[in-house]
Design brief:
The structure holds 2 protein chains of 2 kinds. Chain A is mostly helical. Chain A has helices at 2-13, 22-46, 49-54, 65-68, 74-97, 104-132, 136-150, 167-184, 210-225. At the A-B interface, α1, α2, α3, α6 and α7 of A face α3, α4, α7, α12 and α13 of B.
Chain lengths: 231, 342
């Protein structure tokens, strides 16, 4: 879960200075920063945050493949964000409401983060509506983005060790929530597979997609160039 | 503005001059000389553009920041800069212009941004040097603007200066960590200071005897101190800070002058400054190209937001349909659109 937040934060950080309007430069940086905050708490529960972020190789990262997908156009970024923040909101909501689902530390993190991810989901939902129900071009792009990322969404519901929630129920809630937003936006709910033999739990086992290695190379380069240095 | 007779024009000017003399704030609906309005639009727009272009050299290092803590600090800073741009465009809009119009002038090169952002960030230490020196120079320039005669600008500066001081301290602290780190890190910090020192001094603008707008701006109390005065103040602040950082400043003529009670410093290469202003700095082309590209590639998104707003606007509120701001929650001010019709 810490890797999910870290990797998505890194992707969103690539948007800085490139957003379609200034308000989005603020919003995307804001979301990236929230996710980075979550990542730091989660990684620190396991070990040293910087060691974990900068010195592990690709095969040791446990993030889902969805969050490592390249930003693409704004619609791809929004579709990825809609899928992921809906998942995070449902998961953190359960963890915050029923602390016995995980450790006390996780419950505390979830209680704080659920407020942030509610804002992220609202942001993604508002943009999904605007792009889906905006112009013909924006609808086409939003549909294409939702279709392209659909096959990465099943992996979100592969059980995570140490988090005892009803994953099947989480998945059906997610599907209902996302479908409702897409329908309101005039987007056809994608009908392709959400989980294939190839993608089932792959990210959680350290098997990633090709763009991920390049992303890590950029993220880790400086830290690795100065072994043992403090920053 | 409707035509005014010579007499009433005179009366307006008298009221305006008296307000300036009494250190009162001029507000958007007050009468003001056309040249005062034009000067403010130019200055505030240039200031806003600088915040926006200034995101680029620092954002260049977000994905490569060497620790998660530094990455978080840098992300927060770049986010603040976008927010500052928003405040400043709003302040400019109170003078009867629009953000779209100002952005168009930036993209077409008709309005400028601070020359400093045409220099590249080549190493991580540049991020620290920008925080310490560039933000430091900006604060020295901007704190007096909190007392500027135009109310909306002065109020924007109060908020901006608070956040900038915070960034400046963080920049200093990042450089200190490098300076006290490994020999490679120390060398990286020194190299960054060597490259950013002189461009930072140029941020105060040309010398007083060559500054086109200074005298009028000071008379209008838009500016409170001359370029050279502020530059001197900045040098006096930086020298002891450099010493405590354990770094040197790249100026062999820098020394304390007991008589003046100030540091003397070497001559600035104004030909370099002129070249950068003319568009021939190291990154002018890159900065403006990236800004234009972000704007052009985002056009379909803004069109979608406008089309959506038009479809979903209540019929009697049809005039609000060009509002492309989508995310209200917890974000800094995005208002001000169309407030003033001067």
């Amino acid at each position: 879960m810490g890797d999910d937040a870290l990797v998505l934060s890194q992707r969103l950080g690539e948007w800085a200075g490139h957003a379609p309007v200034l308000e989005e430069d603020v919003a995307l940086a804001n979301i990236a920063l929230d996710l980075l905050g979550q990542a730091r708490v989660l990684l620190s529960l396991v070990g040293d945050e910087d060691e974990l972020a900068f010195l592990r190789e690709e095969r040791a990262f446990r993030n889902v493949q969805l969050v490592e997908q390249p930003n693409g156009d704004f619609a791809h970024t929004i579709a990825r964000q809609l899928y992921f923040s809906t998942y995070q909101r449902l998961l953190y909501g359960r963890m915050a409401a029923a602390p016995e689902t995980g450790s006390a530390d996780l419950a505390a993190l979830a209680a704080k983060a659920v407020k942030e991810v509610a804002y992220h989901q609202d942001h993604a939902e508002q943009w999904t509506l605007r792009l889906g129900d905006g112009t013909a071009e924006s609808r086409t792009r939003m549909q294409a983005a939702c279709d392209a990322l659909w096959r990465f969404t099943g992996e979100l519901f592969q059980p995570v060790e140490g988090v005892d929630v009803d994953w099947a129920e989480l998945e059906s809630d997610w599907l209902a929530s996302v479908s409702a937003v897409l329908e309101r936006a005039g987007i056809t709910v994608p009908d392709g597979p959400r989980l294939t033999a190839w993608s089932a739990g792959a990210g959680r086992q350290g098997v990633h997609t090709e763009p991920f290695g390049r992303m890590l190379a950029e993220m880790q380069h400086l830290h690795r160039s100065h072994p043992g240095a403090a920053w | 503005m409707t035509a005014v007779t010579a007499d009433s024009q005179q009366a307006y000017e008298t009221v305006f001059d008296a307000a300036i003399a009494a250190d009162e704030r001029i507000e958007p609906r007050d009468w003001m000389p056309d040249a005062y309005r034009a000067t403010l639009v130019r200055q505030i727009a240039q200031h806003a553009h600088s915040e926006i272009i200034g995101m680029q050299p620092e954002a260049n290092w977000i994905t490569r920041a060497p620790s998660l803590r530094r990455k978080a600090i840098l992300m927060a800073k770049v986010q603040d800069e976008a927010g500052h741009g928003l405040y400043l465009y709003s302040a400019a809009e109170t003078l009867g212009t629009s953000r779209e119009e100002l952005l168009d002038k930036l993209h077409s090169g008709r309005q400028k941004y601070s020359s400093i952002f045409n220099y590249p960030t080549l190493t991580w230490a540049d991020v620290g040097a920008i925080g310490w020196l560039v933000d430091g120079a900006a604060i020295t320039n901007q704190v007096p603007l909190c007392r500027c005669s135009y109310g909306p600008y002065a109020r924007a500066m109060v908020r901006i200066c608070k956040e900038e001081s915070f960034h400046q301290r963080q920049g200093y602290e990042a450089l200190l960590a490098l300076s006290q780190g490994t020999p490679e890190q120390h060398a990286m910090a020194q190299d960054a200071v060597d490259r950013w020192w002189w461009p930072s001094l140029m941020m105060f603008g040309p010398p007083d005897d060559q500054s086109a707008h200074s005298a009028q701006s000071m008379a209008w109390k838009i500016k409170r101190h001359s370029n050279d005065e502020l530059r001197q103040r900045f040098v006096d602040i930086c020298v002891p800070q450099a010493e405590s950082l354990g770094l040197t400043l790249p100026d062999p003529e820098l020394r304390w002058n007991e008589e003046r009670g100030h540091y003397d410093f070497g001559p600035i290469d104004w030909s370099e400054f002129q070249q950068v202003l003319k568009g021939n700095g190291p990154c002018n082309e890159q900065r403006i190209t990236q800004r234009r590209r972000a704007h052009e590639e985002g056009a379909w998104v803004r069109e979608a937001a406008a089309a959506y707003a038009a479809k979903h606007a209540a019929p009697r509120h049809g005039t609000e349909q060009n509002d492309t701001a989508v995310t209200g929650t917890g974000q800094p001010g995005t208002g001000g659109n169309g407030e003033a019709t001067a």
